[in-house]
Amino acid sequence: MTKHQNTHLVGEDQKLLDQQPNWLESLRRNFDAEVHLPADISREFLSAALLWAIDNKVDFGLFHEADEIIIAHFGGDEIYLPSRWSDKRWHIGPEDKEPFFDPGE
User: Would you say which domain of life the source belongs to (predicted)?
Assistant: First the structure.
């Protein structure tokens, strides 16, 4: 049997929830670069990109807005993150190298 519980925020908890967007923006500002992916990017591509970044020890934050998925990171880590190449498609890694993940495959 599953137990369901409804909770309501009151007092200090409600204040913290109201402040979360400011806290989230403050966290995002800690990074000095961002990659803006379309919200409809394939989950397979996004998963590969995040795993590649983790494997290469990239410090990043993942943020979601209405029409974008944002990977915030520190400068210098661009070679491990998705970028839009001259073929107008997203790839992981710099354009002058063989892509780690080719969405056309």
Answer: Bacteria
- C-alpha to C-alpha distance for 36 and 63, rounded to whole angstroms: 10
pTM, rounded to two decimals = 0.71
Give the list of residues 6+ apart from residue 19 with CB closer than 8 angstroms, or none: none
Can you tell me the distance from the alpha carbon of 23 to that of 68, in angstroms, rounded to the nearest whole number? 19
- What is the greatest pairwise CA distance in the chain? 56
- Residue 56 and residue 43: Cα distance in Å, rounded? 20
pLDDT in tens, 25-39: 888 888 999 999 999
d(CA 11, CA 84): 46
Phi, psi angle pair for 91, to nearest 5°:
-135, 165
Contacts of 60 (CB under 8 A, 6+ apart): 31, 50, 53, 71, 72, 73, 77, 81
